[in-house]
Amino acid sequence: MNIRRKYRCFVCCLLVSGICLLGFSVWHLLCSRIPDTMTVSGYGEIPELFSEPVAQWISGEVTIKNGKTGTAAVEAAAGETAGDGYVDRKSAGGDFYEIEYTLFGKIPLKTVQACVAAPKLVYAGGTPIGMYLRTSGVLVVGTDAIHAKSGELCCPAESVLQAGDYIKMADGKTLETKEELIDCLGMSGGKSVQLQVERDGERITCSVAPVLDESGAYRAGVWVRNDTQGIGTLTYVDEDGHFGALGHGISDIDTGTILAIDGGTLYDADVVSVVRGQEGAPGELAGVIHYSEGYKIGTIEKNQQNGIYGTISGFSLLADKMEQYKVAYRQSVTTGPAQILCTIGECCEAYAVELKEVRRTGGDVNKGIILEVTDEKLLARTGGIVQGMSGSPIIQDGKLIGAVTHVFVNDPKKGYGIFIEDMLETSIKGD
Fold first, then answer.
1. 238 is an active site residue
2. Fewer CB in a 10 Å sphere around the end CB: N or C, the chain?
3. What's the CA gap between 272 and 256, in Å, rounded?
4. In the chain, which residues have pLDDT < 50?
5. Catalytic, out of 238, 242, 390, 422
6. DSSP H/E element including 202
7. Which of 238, 242, 248, 427 is flagged as catalytic?
8. What pLDDT was estimated at residue 122?
């Protein structure tokens, strides 16, 4: 009997433990689907974050810092209005309230901070742009050995400079171009040149002694660059002429790090051909950038993880060719049909996609949306998402919700996207 009782107790304990573990897993999963912060268009709004039938189990209640809840909380905020335009939820003043989400009205899930923002209207892009960016200092992309005139193999910069360094000054002179660095090394006569370098956000001082090479020039054995260029897609322009594009930052091809820039220029560009994507080999939009004053359309001011940002020149003329959309915040984005705007031929068109997953919390901000191209016309021409389409606006239910950022290398029909509010928030913040 004792053995049977012990066995029954053991089974019951396992069963109870399994139920508890399952319950905790469900609770944790639901919590992970609820964002810590969200942006709403008015006080008292409680966004529905789940589809049926889960939505029937989840309820939300408004609370204000003074402890009032429900209707009383909303009435306490009466007379308060959101600021004009988009509100930065991390630095705005008092336009906040909290929403307590519960399971079955009893089990607490998460308390969310809601930022109230007036409806935002922007012009959607979808057109190709050419970008020229100047680095903030001279970027080191690597070091190498040189053949000295003496016959020795030397690498003066090894263990002194490293890939990703930005050389700001040489012997007290501010550097803007690699040619200025080359001239400074060339005139050194072999004496050590003192360098001020920015490394991982910190300014350090070091020195390098150039070596006379076989051609008779003094060199330090360092590969550098001071600019970069490329083609992408314009995402949006707001009513003040400020733009956002790409949905991800521009990284150096050698170091893989986001380029620290000292400004740049936006040019008109045309798509001239398409390299169709296939499994394991992403395609690309091949284009021509018109590098002349007459084709300059704006200035680039920031290169951030979430995209590039700046100001459009002559925006009033450009606005006539673009359509204006309301911005939808992340809690309004759902899986299902959507469209992307991009230019494959001569004009910008809308192509059908399916949003497969919406990640409102955590993870890589540039991969908050997973989408799949379903438009047969686009699939026939590009195979799906290709390089150069980064920044293509994503439209759902007539609202701008985000932008395309990356392609699945092994499945070009699929790609990632960023929520538009993350781009807008980055564009209004300082560096």
1. no
2. N
3. 28
4. 66-94, 430-431
5. 390
6. strand 202-208
7. 248
8. 92
